[in-house]
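Thread title: Can someone regenerate the structure for this chain?

I was given the following input by a collaborator and told the matching structure tokens would be attached. They weren't. Posting the sequence so someone can regenerate them.
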Amino acid sequence: MNISIRRPLLAVIGAPAAALAVWALAVPVAGITPTVRMGGGTQTIGPVPVVVASLLAGLMGLALVAVLERWAARPGRIWTIIALVVCVLSLLGPLGSAVGAGAMLVLILLHLVVGAVLIPGLVRR
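Best answer:
Regenerated them for you:
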């Protein structure tokens, strides 16, 4: 496999794996239940939504990087700025909808771990 393809692919696969590891430490090990307010009730965030959301974030990031590499003069810099802004904005979800401090901490960690894997992992050097 081409080394220029391997790194982004590992990031897209690594983000859900890292998020799932955080979820596994938080829920079964620490006993924290990540719960959010949705509509008129609450919803517990299980492993499937964690994997699906982080995989979708990785695939969307990969698509954006591909577009930027085709059309932008400095795709790595633009990607990093956009991705950091999106990562910070994504924290508004847990801050506004988490039920309890433990859930908020876990959800924020999930967002930050996915960002920490994808942001540097999708940039081509």
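The chain is about 75% helix and 5% strand.
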